[in-house]
Amino acid sequence: MSLSTASSSRADVRIRDLDIVLGGTPILSGMNLDIEPGEFIVLLGPSGCGKSTLLHSIAGLIEAHDGRIDIGGRDVTWADPKDRGIGMVFQSYALYPTMTVEKNMSFGLRIAGTDRAEIDRRVQQAARMLQLGELLQRKPSQLSGGQRQRVAIGRALVRDAGVYLFDEPLSNLDAKLRGELRRELKSLHQTLGATMIYVTHDQVEAMTLATRVVVMRKGLIQQIGTPAEVYQRPANLFVAGFLGSPGMNFVRGGLALREGRPVFTGAGLQIDLGHQDFAEAPADGREVVLGVRPEHLLLHRPDGALPGPGLLPAGRARVTMVEPLGAQTTVWLETLAPQPARIGVQVAADSEPEVGTELALLAEASRLSVFDAASELRL
After folding, report:
1. Cβ(25)–Cβ(192) below 8 Å
2. Which pLDDT value is given to residue 90?
3. Contact between 64 and 57 (Cβ < 8 Å)
4. Percent of the chain at pLDDT exceeding 90
5. What are phi and psi of 144, to 5 degrees?
6. Where is the ABC transporter domain (predicted)?
């Protein structure tokens, strides 16, 4: 089968009640996950959350303690890695230093006894896709880090696998190269239509690459959704705080019902939440955490009229620091209260207020998140 028609071989992945135990310590417990054919799934979370363990268990590099893994409708829970129909790209490239690029890319096919003409055709096609055509006779020591990672990706692609697995493949590269290869991977997925599962702790990679993001923490899935869903409607405080730079603002307070409308009060802020889409009816006196991202706040003169619809008065705050970030600036403020909250607001680079200025805070009504203070779940 040619790489150009690899989309016809793309496979689904079904994980049921998967338990992984390493050295007597449970790493994953009762994991369930469905990945559809052709999806680009990103497993996202901090170090030690179990994302790489999950990827390696799908690859067959870590043995399951219990549960089941299906790839393409076939139970591969106990199958060897070579029999799972996967291609894998590692963080460390894992290239043979004495072999040329061509030999590295074709190694697995040669071991499997693939016809020489078929090997050449697959290697040449993968090399064209990854801009490696002029490098096929070089050895890894003669390549840059970005070129080595392209070779590692090419070695996986020539397998014409049903699923491609990526274990933090860009983490060893500098920022510029990461950006370039990230775009190439996205283009590659669009071209092949293959099923891809990608592990990272970098939220930028997750947001730009994924069709769906799986956010993990301590071996448990916290939320599954499109990048927009997990960013705009985080399921809990962890997801809300993990995504975004600068991070979401959190203000502790309580709900009060005034003429039947819920109002948030806390740390000098007061916001009418009557238009909030609550999953359950808000209760008077409930302790909550209000979440709002810096780009969903607006700074305004305290005596000025509201600049437009959909904006809610939130209170006043005093500028404590201005942090220029090129095209945008983050303004840090403290609310006017005995126990103030620290608030970050993103503004245009040409509208920086002076430190010490007192300003009104306006919040986009449709962009607020409210979490229960005890359970930390979205309300």
Report:
1. no
2. 85
3. yes
4. 69
5. -75, 170
6. 13-243
